[in-house]
Amino acid sequence: MWIHRIHRSFLTPTATFRSITNLSKHRTCFSTQSPSSSPPPPPFSSSISSCYSSSLRSYFHFISLPPTRGTRQNPSLFSLSSLTTAMPTSDEVKQKILGGEDVQRLNKIFTSNGYDFRLVGGAVRDIFLGRWPKDLDFSTTALPEVTKDLLEKEGIRVVLTGLQHGTVTAVLNKEQYEITTLRLDHSINGVELDEPSYTCDWELDALRRDLTINALSLDFDGNLYDYFNGIEHLQQHKIMFVKNAVLRIQEDYLRILRYFRFHGSVCDRDTFEDSEIEAIKQNVSGLEGVSGERIWMEMGKILLSCRGPSLVQLMFECGVFPHIHLPDVRESHLQILEDVHRHDCNATTLLVCLLGDADQFQELFSHWHFSSAERKQALNIIQHRENPISMVVVEDLLVDKVERETVVQLCKYKQRDDLATHAASFPIPTFPITGKALIASGVKPGKAMGVIMGDLKAKWVNSRFKLSFEELMAQMPPTE
Q1: Chain centroid to CA 128: how far?
Q2: Are 43 and 121 in contact (CB under 8 A)?
Q3: Can you name the residues that pair with 4 across neighbouring β-strands?
Q4: Do residues 99 and 90 touch, judged by C-beta distance below 8 A?
Q5: Rounded distance, CA 231 to CA 142, Å?
Q6: Among the listed ranges 126-130, 235-239, 291-295, 328-332, which one has the minimum average pLDDT value?
Q7: Positive or negative torsion for Cα 72, 78, 83, 88
Q8: In this structure, how many other beta carbons lie within 10 angstroms of the beta carbon of residue 216?
Q9: What is the pTM of this model?
Q10: What is the pLDDT of residues 295-311, one digit of tens each?
């Protein structure tokens, strides 16, 4: 494992990260004493009874940590300047991420009571990619109930919705920060089994992550903890599973799709490792046990990636699609996707490229559970995609109350960005004739009224919406 000090040049275009020390792994132990009075946790002891009260042992499942493993000698110099050309400055990072008042307050609460506290996972990865993290997630050596007590003692609102996973959410100034106790993975397909297994070992906690680039952690002294060469893989544009690809995949088969998704969001080239692809091919059938909602969430992000078509091509070659309810994807669909992908479409439109007809979508809908808006959009595009598209067609669809965004996406699917622009800005006129007006003119409600209304609307549309109320009423057939 390597530790890197973040220099003052951190996250500038010439940023480098030099190892400052080899890790002599120190282990801390959970304490069940009152946080305010307890000293820093003692070194790890193989005797669980010396660390945990009997009441907590009856509630949580703990593990005995393995002996310290050797550390890598003489780590090399890292430069991430090739990963982005628009990195934030070190001052921005300091103030907005680690230097924020709320975040600093959280760090002080834990470290002043003898517990480790680090920023973990995707937030650390995004920092080193020069991206502002969407969420800040933290890990600590404090047990969940200790975490809860520490926060509440400081008057911080606590949400316990993730307690079964060892996660406590702290709410400060309307911002939510997830704080998770170090633990081992204990799940199948992302579903937690039994009780969580807590540990004092940061590397064991990192081992439960899916990918090396997501197993990074960062402390508030600027030390980056990289247990599985995640920084090197970022530099090399590689996506690698942590340690054993087969085991990581079998812990949660959705990780197959996450592999492709992160390849699309992190790498700018097709640099796939044979070992990872082979592990995916061997385990692809496991995707059949993953919920449709989770699959669609990942597939949408894959499709929207700037390298979406090439990723989908590789997924096709790996045999992914028959196992996620897309058994009829063909090479011709992949070519359509490549063509349509250039036109800034949303995920639903790109998915339609992989479907042959409405029946295939309806079958997929029964498994993936799209939103009502996504379903309507997909079916409308499938219905109209084989028909010629023009400005008149675009306006008629809008007047017929097809959702504006659906019409825009249809134009993009047809690779007519000019018409998409028109669809986005066209002021939709209102048909001036109402049922109330027809009744006032002597038309009786019923089927005949519907026929008259349809005939008048057709005349209005053919006039390109120019006929006025009076002109339309003058063309109404006489009533009996």
Answers
A1: 18
A2: no
A3: 19, 224
A4: no
A5: 27
A6: 126-130
A7: positive
A8: 27
A9: 0.78
A10: 999 999 999 999 999 99
